[in-house]
Amino acid sequence: MNPELKILNLEIDKARTILYKLTNNKSLTDSNVVFCSQKLDKLLNKYHELLS
């Protein structure tokens, strides 16, 4: 696997874990949850671009 993809994959896993933990304690509309969700979306989009 491409080294950049490996790093990105780790960042995605970390963001998912953080988002999961946040959603256990906060509303889905909480600003921290929304921010983390948007960050995860950007990481996933970047990952998809690198695969294309």
From TrEMBL:
One of its GO terms (molecular function) is protein dimerization activity. GO terms for biological process: regulation of sporulation. Coiled coil: none annotated. Gene3D superfamilies: Helix-loop-helix DNA-binding domain (4.10.280.10). This is Spo0E like sporulation regulatory protein. The lineage of its organism: Bacteria, Bacillati, Bacillota, Clostridia, Eubacteriales.
